[in-house]
Amino acid sequence: xxxxxxxxxxxxxxxxxxxxxxxxxxxxxxxxxxxxxxxxxxxxxxxxxxxxxxxxxxxxxxxxxxxxxxxxxxxxxxxxxxxxxxxxxxxxxxxxxxxxxxxxxxxxxxxxxxxxxxxxxxxxxxxxxxxxxxxxxxxxxxxxxxxxxxxxxxxxxxxxxxxxxxxxxxxxxxxxxxxxxxxxxxxxxxxxxxxxxxxxxxxxxxxxxxxxxxxxxxxxxxxxxxxxxxxxxxxxxxxxxxxxxxxxxxxxxxxxxxxxxxxxxxxxxxxxxxxxxxxxxxxxxxxxxxxxxxxxxxxxxxxxxxxxxxxxxxxxxxxxxxxxxxxxxxxxxxxxxxxx
Length: 340
Prior knowledge:
The structure is a single chain. 59% of the residues lie in helices and 10% in strands. α6 runs antiparallel to α7 (91-101), α6 runs antiparallel to α11 and α13 crosses α14 (264-273). β5, α9 (172-182) and β6 form a beta-alpha-beta unit. The protein has 18 helices and 7 strands. With 340 residues, the protein is of the alpha+beta class. It is globular. It has helices at residues 6-18, 23-28, 33-38, 46-60, 65-71, 79-86, 91-101, 135-153, 172-182, 199-202, 211-230, 234-248, 253-259, 264-273, 278-296, 301-307, 313-324, 328-339; strands spanning 3-5, 43-45, 109-116, 119-126, 162-164, 186-187, 193-198. It has 2 domains: 3-202, H-NOX domain; 233-339, Homeodomain-like (Arc Repressor Mutant, subunit A, Orthogonal Bundle), CATH 1.10.10.60. The strands form 2 sheets. Strands 3-4-7-5-6 form a 5-stranded mixed sheet. A two-stranded antiparallel sheet has the order 1-2. The termini are far apart. The mean pLDDT is 88.
């Protein structure tokens, strides 16, 4: 069954409610409600995302809400997949990363790249054939590609050569949004949902390129993809929950347990049954997050220490040296020299 991840559905819900949709009514459509959306291992029927966007359109009177939701997508929306995209060397590499790990976020419409002379075609292979039922999901996906592509290029005016959609032409208000997102060359009732860009644009070097960070993140993504395919282990679930909390603030066992839909006592017992320790998993998650932050080279060491939940920078520096054998400042400087 084609599904979307909890983080993907959560982004749709959050953006739709920010645009004026009725939050309680939308969450009531989700099996398990709000708690299920926070569960990092939860997957939802792909058609549910379409029904939620349709309901949000009714609440707000915005026929264009699928496009508006997609316009708000950024790399951070998709956690490690998004961070890898943001560190890619070219748009083509970012697209290839998305193809490789797209199943971690959604598999209702898988991306395919076709080279056509001087153009590159970004096509979606729809797992759900009902074009009208999935219209707003497809709008969000392709508007997201457009928004993230422009964000990666630092070019908000870049136009597409053309765009095509399987669904029928929408109302004029929505057509105006299509022109904003994709330019004037848009076809409806097409055989496939697709965007076409200049092949040279796809090869243009990106300003935030960071090959070392891509390598680091893809190693983690390979493990997550294998876990998804095999059925996620408790260790992977806890690690995913910890990484989510680290990006948002100081993690805790109680909050991790809540993300997994259980009590802190139950989580501790299940970890013990599998020979795992919450404190050891937290240390591993901190180590992985610290390495990503150092590679990103955007935050001060004090900021990184705070995000990882250390009371002071000295404690963080001591932990980092234990993990990597040298102080974080020295480690960061060596990475800068390799890049420069």
